[in-house]
Specification:
Helix content is about 50%, strand content about 15%. It is rod-shaped, with a radius of gyration of 43 Å.
Length: about 210
């Protein structure tokens, strides 16, 4: 009986000792000096900064490409530099999308047509300056007149170019014209010829025979 009692007391003593040791270990672990983490090396710092700079450069290059694309579109569409101030923006908006302001109130000057390679121009609006300048070239430029001779059409366009670059209002201006065509070849040739000098207010394609 005494032997069993002694054995039980030994087991309890060992359990208490193990528990005490465990508590001591946990206490030591909680208050032990922290091992300092080594700061990044100079090479690691430079590598990180280089990666960040590379990402910024890539974004700036993307933004630059997009900005250039927008500038080219504006200049191609409106034939002028991008406005740099509110005043320049208002001036551009007054141009109504033609890139230049109107030359006169009744600004739809010509009705041009290109039908299977044959070009005809009809004068829609009167302009005394153009009419006077074209008289020595024997070109009738009264409203309602029709011009069919290629050389006369070229003379008209050259006088329009001279007028728009030195309009009485001061600065450049641009007349409007309407354009009728039959084929896509007429379309491209006509636009290439007329839109160097005039703003296209309307384009109409003739219906093919037999179509509605």
């Amino acid at each position: 009986m005494n032997a069993l009692r002694s054995k039980g007391e030994l087991v309890i003593s060992m359990t208490l000792a193990e528990t005490f040791l465990l508590l001591v270990f946990m206490l030591w672990y909680s208050i032990r000096p922290k091992i300092p983490i080594a700061p990044p090396t100079r090479i690691e710092v430079l590598k990180k900064e280089n990666q960040e700079l590379a990402a910024k450069v890539e974004k700036l290059q993307h933004d630059l490409i997009e900005t250039r694309s927008r500038l080219e579109l504006w200049q191609k569409r409106f034939d002028q530099i991008v406005p740099g101030s509110d005043a320049e923006l208002r001036k551009a908006l007054l141009g109504g999308g033609r890139g230049k302001p109107k030359c006169q109130d009744d600004n739809l000057l010509l009705a041009a047509s290109s039908i299977k390679g044959t070009t005809t121009v009809r004068v829609l609006a009167d302009n005394a300056v153009l009419r006077a300048r074209l008289i020595p070239q024997h070109v009738d430029f009264r409203a309602g007149a029709t011009i069919t001779t290629p050389s006369d059409i070229d003379s008209v366009l050259l006088q329009i170019a001279a007028f728009r670059n030195g309009s009485p209002q001061g600065g450049e201006c641009k007349f409007d014209y309407s354009f009728t065509y039959a084929t896509y070849e007429d379309y491209y040739r006509g636009r290439e010829r007329f839109e160097k000098y005039l703003y296209s207010a309307k384009r109409t394609k003739l219906a093919e025979p037999g179509t509605k």
